[in-house]
Task: structure prediction
Amino acid sequence: MTKRNAFYAQSGGVTAVINASAAGVIETARRHRARIGKVYAGRNGIIGALTEDLIDTSKEPAAAIRALKHTPSGAFGSCRYKLKGLEESRAQYERLIEVFRAHDIGYFFYNGGNDSADTCLKVSQIAEKLGYPLAAIHVPKTVDNDLAVTDNCPGFGSVAKYVATSMREAAFDVASMAKTSTKIFVLEVMGRHAGWITSAVGMADDEETPIPLVLLFPEIAYDEAAFLAAVDAKTKAHGYCCIGVSEGLSDASGRLLAEAGGKDAFGHAQLGGVGPLIAARVKANLGYKFHWAVADYLQRAARHLASKTDLDQSYAVGRAAVEYALAGKNAVMPAIARVSDRPYRWKIVEAPLAKVANVEKKLPRDFIAKDGYGITPKARTYLGPLMKGESPPPFRDGLPRYVRLKNAPVAKKLAAGFDV
Result:
């Protein structure tokens, strides 16, 4: 078969381990030099393809690509840029194929979440319509853990480990000060519609380390009276209370409590400040002194505390994406299938993008306690293995050492530019 080049891009919010998927793609492609020429990366995601701003990963030594496995963020730059429907944005899709044709790209690896799965599917469709041979493979990634078909999403296990650890450590702090000072601690975590990360906060509390904890999930409508009663009861019983709240918390009418008013590039409402809002309501109604924190970028950038399971799975989906493409697969995603819980075993399986794109997997109701403020044993069985194992980055002078790639540009071949 004719040797052709590959294109890889990162999309949406990055994670502590998305670069491990990049390493999986690049290292696997390098092992198949007879079939794959160069791997080009899009600078700032799909925008790099539209503007013909490509990065030549062949300029990076093997050690640098290997170091991606312990480096957080998106090594090539990511973006929040949504391509619309094929007919509505046909010119954009045709531009992608034009760039791919100019650089003889026969493999398209798009590393992202729900919107990225949809884009990857549409790129495969327009390539077919235009008669351009292209294997389009979606590489899963999202801290929200809300992709369909796959048991879990690369990026989630490390966020889960971080927020559970952060809540446990903060709880020890609050407990030590509660007699004369702070009695309430609120941690706001990511999760617009799905409460997977909020559920992970619940792992901070266990039989060996009991913590008075109240969780607020986006799947459960916020009932202020019931919430305040739960917080008050725990505070009176234990002297303090810790609260984990999803940024996507909504009331019974479906209104987001912390909607800031704007929209992001994907058309989603911009959220902000549900943590301090909840803390203020506790203070106003119960009078308890409080502190709050917003995990924000820290939860998805914390490579120093990444889950070994998550790291292994992130690399595996990158490797599998290349193997699928070489096997002639198209419009598919390497998904993670759970084989067993005890011992925890998993494998990579093929998932058609038509079943993944634009489908949001929410936290099951049976993962949430009957009162709506905690997690069940079933949730613990699911979450536990995803957080296990340590794989710290190398440290020097007390700080982690991460790699910054050269990101050498590829010479442009098209005369016309393209506005995005």
